[in-house]
Design a protein that fits this description.
Two copies of one chain form a homodimer.
Chain A lengths: L5 E4 L14 E5 L4 H10 L4 E4 L3 H10 L3 E7 L2 E2 L14 H4 L3 E5 L3 H10 L4 E5 L4 H11 L3 E5 L8 H14 L8 H13 L3 H5 L3 H7 L4 H7 L9 E4 L2 E4 L2
Parallel strand pairs in A: 1-8, 2-7, 2-8, 3-6, 4-6
Antiparallel strand pairs in A: 4-5, 9-10
Chain lengths: 241, 241
């Protein structure tokens, strides 16, 4: 049997050179959108509505019962929204049963791009839900695109490392012949045992740690602490059960 | 003194997110345009005219005394041109004193993009002229962009490895804080001692070795065998003396 193929896309700016029709796209935004999404759903959020503008976030928040608005631009809570983009803001006792309307700098933008470009299925991935992502991908028999959200279209390491972590686990189920994937896997294999130290060298860690977010960032590179599968259905990310 | 900065651009598609004004851009197309350019100039070519279409290649070739036309699309000599994109085609006894009019899939395209976007200086880099590139960059006191030509805008490893080789050698002279550069340097450091073996894993090697080009490709990942500095002046690449 021909295996489906797997590609890694290193920046939203590179999405347009791939044909993602009838494929699964994994949206990766390790610092911090997809880590927050996994955490909120793991802790019982009913759903997450990812939106690509602050205005939509406020409007949908106002129209949705039992919802909260949240979002971040450049690492900070956006004025006019209620919460930020930190997984630590969403413990079970706060988020259970609620709808989170979320907008972020990079991750939600890529999700909408993938949607508009014809992906058949969109899920989100982060170290906190690594196993859930890999278990899902192995069963789907579809082509996969690991989509790194990057930082304003610039390549980033943390999303690439997560792509590498996925590749290490699922590669026997896929045909993989793309330099991005080979690089991602190698970078992950070289650093899987010093992830906290290595992640501190990334530009995004520097950017965010200025805001006192070190604990948050360490959580975001910790495997399987919110092991749920967020899948996009009818405009929302819900936990696949 | 503030050091100038250095960035690595992993695909021509990402060039537009950087401000390259008043900067030096190093065009990198390891397999094989920039390796061929270094080799032809090292072997005494008078100049190389990089053009972005076959039609221009033929027209300029016809109008230029003592010139030859050469070019490659998808690894093969283009119909209507005289030679291909292999460094082995340009020994001294053939190329000395001649003008090479060259068009290639990726490298000459990126060169023209960088030119149109306002780079103040354009040079070309490849393993055969690694030292010449590094020596030049260290003396310039300008911001540097290492521009990987990639493969039809897809990230490729061989250009990234060369960027990493440059970074290893020049990093003390620059302010470098970009994940692309950090990754490129790490990939190079991990593979500098097994370059022949590792380069064989890249997609581009697979693509080209089908045409019996293994010797060519090994040459293209060999350091300093054509150690000249090609610099773009008045429409041509010439050897800086």
């Amino acid at each position: 049997m021909n295996k489906p193929y797997l590609h890694t896309i290193l920046s939203p700016e590179l999405l347009n050179i791939y044909d993602i029709n009838d494929s699964i796209v994994v949206i990766i935004d390790v610092f911090r959108a997809t880590s927050t999404i996994a955490t909120a759903l793991y802790n019982g959020a009913e759903k997450i509505i990812p939106v690509d503008s602050v205005e939509k976030c406020i409007a949908i928040g106002n129209a949705t019962p039992n919802s909260i608005t949240a979002g971040e631009r450049d690492g900070k809570v956006i004025e006019g929204l209620q919460y930020g983009n930190s997984p630590a803001e969403y413990p079970r006792k706060f988020i259970e049963g609620k709808t989170l309307v979320l907008t972020t700098t990079n991750g939600t933008k890529l999700l909408h791009m993938a949607l508009n470009k014809g992906a058949s299925e969109i899920i989100t991935g982060s170290f906190p839900n690594l196993n859930a992502v890999c278990n899902f991908l192995r069963t789907q028999k579809k082509n996969i695109f690991l989509g790194c959200s990057a930082w304003k279209n610039r390549f980033n390491l943390e999303d690439t490392l997560f792509a590498g972590a996925v590749i290490e686990k699922v590669k026997s189920s896929f045909h993989i012949h793309c330099d991005s994937s080979l690089m991602a896997e190698q970078m992950y294999l070289h650093h899987k045992h010093d992830m906290f130290a290595f992640a501190r060298l990334t530009t995004h860690w520097h950017r965010l740690s200025k805001f006192g977010l070190d604990k948050d960032l360490e959580y975001c590179v910790t495997n399987n602490v919110a092991d749920v599968l967020p899948i996009y259905k009818n405009g929302s990310l819900i936990a696949l059960t």
